[in-house]
Structures are given as C-alpha cells and as structure tokens.
Design brief:
Elements (H helix, E strand, L loop, with lengths): L2 E4 L11 E8 L9 H18 L8 H12 L10 H10 L9 H13 L3 E5 L7 E5 L24 E4 L4 E4 L4 E2 L12 E7 L5 H15 L2 E7 L5 E4 L2
Parallel strand pairs: 1-4
Antiparallel strand pairs: 1-10, 2-8, 2-9, 3-8, 4-5, 5-6, 6-7
C-alpha cells in the first residue's frame, strides 16, 4: 500500500522545511548491532566528536535553525530540543549514541552524520495519511517509555507529526509516541529525514543503503517541500 505525507499546513510558515519520506520494507532488525554496523557507527561517532570539540552547540547552523523554528511555534524551554541536538550533545559529552537495535542505531548514526532529525515508525501501526501540521483539539500523545501510558496532549499551535488517528511525534521531532514505535519484530517501517537547511535527499539515499546492508530492507523515498508539499511512496 502506498504511503502518503503532506506538509501543506506548515509549508507557508516554514518555507525552508524539507522532509524525505522513506519507506523500508522487508526489514530484519537485529537486537544488537552487527559487527559491520558497529564499526561504521563508531567511525561516525569519532568523526562527530572530533568535529564538535568543545564548540557550543548553539553555534551550529543546523541547530540554530531548529531552535528558531521551535521558538516560532511557542517552545521556549531549553529542555525541548530537536532529536538531532540530543544526539550531538550525547556524543560531545562522551556518552556516545544510545544502543537500541540495528534499525534505530543505524538511523541515529546517520542523523548524527548529516545533522538532520531522523525518526521511524512501524508501518503496520499507522493509519491513513501522514502529516506534519499544527496540533488540533483532540490530539493525543503517549510518550515512548511512559509505563503508565498517560495522555500528554500537545499545546495549541504546536507542530506535530501525525497519522489519521494519533500523534507520532510531539514538538515536530522532539519525542516519539509509543503507539507506533518500531521493535525488532517490525518488518516494514516509515522513516523521515528532516531539514531546515540542506537537501535531505543525500541523507535519505545513504539511509536506504544502510538499511539494505544492515537490515536487508528494500527502500524508496520522496522529498516533500514547499513547492511540492504532498508526496507518495509506494506501492
């Protein structure tokens, strides 16, 4: 079944925003990093740490763009940062990238390399078309990792990522909803590579190559942007 994505509701307010919609099918996700993937991730971590040094993250143009975008829809707390900023901070502080599974570890590494937020959802757990849009009354959000499953709905005007029935991510790319999270049992996934600066297509191409090499997947992608706010990847 084709997967559709639209950014039409936010394209005017954020004309530089581009997102690559990646559909990966036939995944085999190892619970631990295979040796070749572990080696590649270690190289990316080392290169990122050397490049960052002790440079303040606020000086990075990619993060400046996301911080400005977050402020534009009302996020002022410094505890709310884009997902890629958290990865960069972890590597700069010597903690390295988190270890989750081969899929998550792979896309986190490429997020770090390209300094673009990357996320994934289990295609089998999605309903209807996907959209980056302002929040709406009735939107629900259950944070990944919340054992109590509490609803934490978005603030009015917050940019969210959603399918037809639920949120997939709050504050644009800040934190994922539990109800669509990938696991080692996931066979088909939808990923997004997001940018307010550079073209996300090269990162999406590399992501597809990595998922083929390390998870046995077949991938296709398309890029949504202001001039083409709706895209479909199928079948």
């Amino acid at each position: 079944m084709p997967v559709t994505l639209t950014i039409a509701e936010i394209a005017e307010a954020f004309p530089a925003y581009r997102v690559a919609l990646v559909v990966a099918r036939g995944l085999t996700i190892a619970a631990e990093r295979p040796p070749a993937l572990a080696e590649a991730i270690a190289a990316i971590e080392a290169a990122a740490a050397e490049d960052l040094g002790e440079r303040p993250l606020a000086e990075l143009p990619e993060l400046q763009a996301w911080r400005s975008a977050y402020k534009a829809f009302g996020v002022k707390k410094t505890s709310y940062r884009s997902s890629v900023e958290r990865l960069l901070k972890a590597v700069q502080q010597g903690r390295g990238l988190p270890r989750v599974n081969a899929l998550v570890d792979a896309y986190n590494a490429l997020s770090l390399r390209h300094r673009m937020p990357v996320g994934a959802d289990d295609l089998a757990l999605l309903a209807g078309g996907l959209a980056f849009r302002p929040s709406r009354p009735g939107d629900s959000f259950i944070a990944l990792g919340d054992a109590e499953g509490r609803d934490d709905p978005p603030k009015p005007g917050e940019i969210v990522y959603a399918d037809a029935g639920k949120l997939l991510c709050r504050r644009w790319n800040w934190y994922q909803d539990a109800r669509s999270a990938t696991t080692p049992a996931t066979r088909d996934a939808v990923l997004t590579v997001q940018s307010l600066e550079a073209d996300p297509a090269p990162a999406a191409e590399e992501l597809c190559a990595w998922l083929a090499a390390h998870c046995g997947a077949s991938c296709a992608f398309a890029v949504a942007e202001a001039s083409r706010p709706a895209v479909t990847v199928g079948p």
